[in-house]
Specification:
5-stranded antiparallel beta sheet, alpha+beta
Amino acid sequence: MLLNDLNVGQVVISKSGRDKGRLFFIIKIVNKEYVLIADGDYRKLDKAKLKKVKHLTKYKYASEDIGNKILNKEYINDAFLRYELDRLKSKL
């Protein structure tokens, strides 16, 4: 699902709040103003953070593995999110 250049599995960084400066994946697009984000460490999948899009900086990088697994309702865990974020950090 694509919304304002956002898609599931895309890497974003928080611009405000307690999690300011942290990298996350978009787990779900709720509507045009809100998304659910998680990183597998600070924010686990079962307690994903509801965040306003305007409080996020979007990166052009995305994990196709995470996006496809979420959209196909396949199982993913927090360790997989952490692994993918570590792998993508080198590209940022």
